[in-house]
Design goal:
By secondary structure, the protein is α+β, with helices and mostly antiparallel strands. Helices cover 39% and strands 14% of the residues. The chain is built from nine helices and six strands. The structure holds zinc ion.
Amino acid sequence: MRDNDRLVIQSADEFVRLRSSDDPEEYARAAHGAATEDIWLDVIDRFPEMCFWVAQNKTVPLSILELLRRDPDDNVVRMVRSKRSWARAHPEDSMRSDLTGLTVDVPCPRCDHGTVNRHLFAPTSEVVRICDECESLWFDGDGLRADVATDFASYSADRGGSGTWSELSTLS
Ligand SMILES: [Zn+2]
């Protein structure tokens, strides 16, 4: 079996199973595997609580993102608006250009040698920005200034997390 075949998601139920799996390889497939438009529509229809993860999938087509842009859940909408593919198609609606012009791979204003990227904090589905060196943390939408930074360990602890990077998924 070729690698691409292995990644293909065959049904809505398979997507839900992969996403709900404790196996990192399986939930990575939920994030990277491709599926047909019919399968995505089936997930949205039968598993509305999975809409966020549909929006997060790296291969999901624009037609599906356009549907999810109208989702009642703010987290789903935010995920759609933070995607590269959305920014290309709908730059006026993208969250990637309204974050004080600073989006991805931004130099850290606190330690100077790390870079700051946007991540999803899994326990709360909140989007935050974290330096990969010093783990300074900014809330999404805040200015990226040294004096308003907190740090990932205390942020995570306040929310019952363990402060490990496995709680984060990087947003593309
Ligand atoms: Zn830093």
